Amino acid sequence: MGVNVLDEIRVTGGRPLRGNISVQGSKNAALPMMAASLLHRGISVLRDCPKIADVYCMEEILKELGAVSWWKGKDLYLDCSRADKTEIPGEKTGKMRSSVILLGAMLGRNGKGAMGYPGGCVIGKRPIDLHIYALRSLGAAVREGEEDISASCVRLKGAKVCFPKSSVGATEQGILAAVLAEGESMLMGCAREPEIIWLCRYLKGMGAEISGEGSGCIRIRGVRELKGGDLEIPADRIVTGTYLCAAAATRGKITINNPPAGEVDAFLKVYRKIGGQYEWNSGKLIADGSGVGCPLPYLETEIYPGFPTDLQSPLMAVLATIPGKSHIRENIFEDRFKLAGELNRMGARVTVSGRDAWIQGTDSLTGCRVEAEELRGGAALILAALAAEGETVISGCSYIRRGYEHICRDLAAVGGRIEEKTGKVLYENIQIQEKNNIN
Ligand code: UD1
Prior knowledge:
alpha/beta, four-stranded mixed sheet, 15 helices, 31% helix, 26% strand, elongated, binds uridine-diphosphate-N-acetylglucosamine
């Protein structure tokens, strides 16, 4: 499959953004729904599905298992009638973190599954012990090999699963495995992120019996089979936050046409603290960043409903434009400050020690050559570049494609001076390009 790869982005900064933006569908909601589609032997539809590299990657993996897929405009159709293969090679799973939740779906469907270990952005250790714990609790025999992991069962059995730590992926794994299990399951210590609620909404539309999603305790009564899924993917809360950060970094004013209401509250609270203003009007979110200028004495990333780790880098880019000292503590992923060095090249002074970053911002960031090292950090560099004087050339930005469908087009439409150099390459080439930077 051919996809556009963002090779290099050139940004000429210094102009406040102004205008309206519509936000793409959510990556983190779409991926587990794609995995859930494997639980029905027929056609499922994901409406308004984002056309991003991670979705294409998951589509490729499902095809590897025997699924047939096609797009009608922005809707992704997945026909899993014959998706009965139970092995996914490591070169496919290594491209993305979310591949691991297919294990629960394969177990639910066919009682067995084997795969290479999942990849993902290099932002910390990212173990999968909680995923394995959930599957074992539900009766699967799991073997962790050197290079791959396999699991099998006769039929999964409903059980109590008590997560010692909140994990979005492990909660999704538990849900996917439990919906077709025999009997009732009670998942405790579950993640409460909106994407869990969206996954459950999708599965309930397929006939799954689930209650309690959005709380720490989810109850599932297993059913024998599920029908096809059909749901519109919600607007992406992280992309929404990224675009609001772009407005803040440039002291601009933008309107988000389709914000995911209720999912961006923690971000908006911080937006206000740094001097931004916003109002809701007929479902739109009007954000005025012209008054942004207050450093942030302390902010920590937290599980939902706290400030999301995925917006930590975009926020850091904004703080780099605010004279004074800000402090961020990253509680979710221990190695998520790769952006710091690049911001320093642009004139900020960011000091990192373990999970803490102190940001000495400046109102005179200067454009230069920088390199994206992961998805959200890459997007954050675009924001810093929009605020900087002169031209910034961002390389290594193919990862931005993992999660942002049209970041350059969207920000250019509100006045950003952005040029993207894309190359049409075979999907496999992305793998080569990114093999050292697993997301
Ligand atoms: C998901 C999101 C990602 C987001 C993250 C936290 C998707 C596709 N990705 O990632 O964008 O940044 O939630 O909101 O939805 N952990 C363990 N053992 C496990 C699993 C996780 O210790 O088995 C730890 C992780 O190392 C991390 C924490 O739990 O410190 C949270 O990770 P988790 O919520 O699982 O993140 P992901 O599902 O990978």
